[in-house]
């Protein structure tokens, strides 16, 4: 077998090729792109033996193991497509391995390529090779992550908007308890400071409420107008003008993000609906088209990727870790995890509380023992991930009586 360390940068890759004994066979700096990848194939082919070559198909790519610190990009996709065993290694773990080769703290691209080759040669059993997920689920992951990132961006802009209004226009927070609703964004863009807001006519406020499909627009408009016209402490006009620019910009950003989020959500739901695992995933309590798409995309659809339910739980970050030393033993939440999947699992657990009597009973039992809310949701999420693993393994949809047999037995 050959072991390749690939230390990647934006425009080049430092490569080291080793044999099974750790002898360095080749070292090179390759340009990003087709030319560099072709040279990598040549370097590997130069050091393959006759036993590695098949008369019909050429060399056996599975005899080549590559370690690299990323799982994305056209270069990595090409390595996987070529049939190599590719290990996407965590940069934090690689940094710890680097310390074995020197305590001085020195670092170089060539040195990192050597460390990566050493890891896949000596310690690959403790790492997970890249899964053979379908292109469809990889595309779904990209769109689902963008959808989630836009939601996180919207939340940050919303927090900035709320903070700015609190500084110079607190009446707006009273008039619009939910700043994310369409009528609040429309009216704040039109009147982002107290003076202009006080001049808003009731008909304009009513029209905004009607466009947002609110009930009883007339009484609501009257209440909003009364709040906006009530006497209040004011900032200096120059300061108010500066804040008004900031608020108007934030409102336009949030409105634009709302439109993009809605469009991405439709794409996510459509792509998820076409996947063969969609029925099993959406049968789980608390998972709809969008959250289910996030869960499926992050787990992937390579059914041989996880050795068991525990491996899937570890990848989701729902299973706890134990730190023991002498007589001291502490169980902690797992924070080194896929944060996209961990966030989805947390929301999944929360939604399952109203969708599954068994999940609700399990959560209530944990709370009765003194477990705090988020810790109880993590434990519930851990159980739900295990249930999903069983359903995917057996190709069956969720059943409440099978998922929570002991709770159903107690109820009987």
Automatic annotation (TrEMBL):
Residues 4-170 form the Transposase IS110-like N-terminal domain. One of its GO terms (biological process) is DNA transposition. GO terms for molecular function: DNA binding; transposase activity. Residues 279-363 form the Transposase IS116/IS110/IS902 C-terminal domain. InterPro entries: Transp_IS110-like_N, Transpos_IS110, Transposase_20. This is Transposase IS116/IS110/IS902 family protein.
């Amino acid at each position: 077998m050959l072991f390749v360390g690939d230390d990647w940068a934006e425009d080049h890759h430092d490569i080291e090729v080793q044999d099974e004994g750790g002898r360095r066979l080749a070292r090179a700096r390759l340009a990003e792109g087709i030319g560099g990848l072709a040279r990598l194939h040549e370097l590997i082919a130069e050091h393959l033996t006759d036993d590695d070559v098949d008369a019909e198909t050429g060399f056996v790519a599975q005899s080549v193991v590559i370690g690299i610190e990323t799982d994305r990009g056209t270069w990595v996709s090409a390595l996987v497509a070529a049939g190599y065993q590719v290990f996407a290694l965590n940069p934090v773990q690689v940094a710890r391995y680097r310390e074995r080769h020197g305590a001085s703290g020195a670092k170089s691209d060539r040195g990192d390529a050597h460390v990566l080759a050493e890891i896949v040669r000596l310690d690959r059993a403790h790492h997970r090779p890249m899964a053979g997920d379908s292109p469809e689920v990889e595309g779904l992951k990209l769109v689902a992550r963008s959808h989630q990132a836009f939601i996180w961006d919207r939340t940050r802009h919303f927090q900035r908007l709320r903070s700015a209004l609190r500084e110079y226009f607190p009446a707006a927070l009273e008039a619009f308890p939910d700043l994310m609703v369409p009528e609040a964004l429309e009216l704040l863009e039109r009147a982002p400071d107290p003076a202009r807001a006080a001049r808003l006519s009731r008909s304009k406020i009513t029209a905004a409420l009607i466009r947002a499909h609110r009930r009883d627009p007339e009484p609501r408009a009257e209440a909003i107008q009364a709040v906006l016209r009530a006497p209040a402490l004011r900032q200096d006009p120059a300061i108010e003008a500066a804040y008004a620019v900031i608020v108007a910009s934030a409102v336009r950003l949030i409105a634009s993000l709302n439109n993009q989020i809605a469009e991405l959500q439709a794409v996510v739901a459509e792509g998820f609906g076409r996947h063969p695992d969609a029925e099993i995933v959406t049968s789980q309590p608390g998972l709809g088209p969008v959250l289910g798409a996030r869960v499926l995309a992050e787990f992937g659809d390579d059914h041989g990727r996880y050795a068991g339910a525990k491996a899937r739980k570890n990848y989701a970050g729902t299973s706890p870790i134990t730190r023991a030393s002498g007589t001291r033993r502490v169980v902690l939440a797992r924070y080194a995890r896929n944060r996209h999947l961990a966030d989805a699992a947390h929301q999944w657990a929360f939604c399952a509380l109203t969708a599954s009597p068994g999940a609700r009973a399990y959560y209530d039992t944990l709370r009765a023992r003194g477990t705090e809310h988020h810790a109880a949701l993590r434990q519930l999420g851990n159980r739900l991930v295990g249930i999903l693993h069983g359903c995917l393994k057996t190709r069956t949809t969720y059943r409440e009586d099978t998922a929570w047999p002991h709770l159903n037995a107690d109820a009987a």
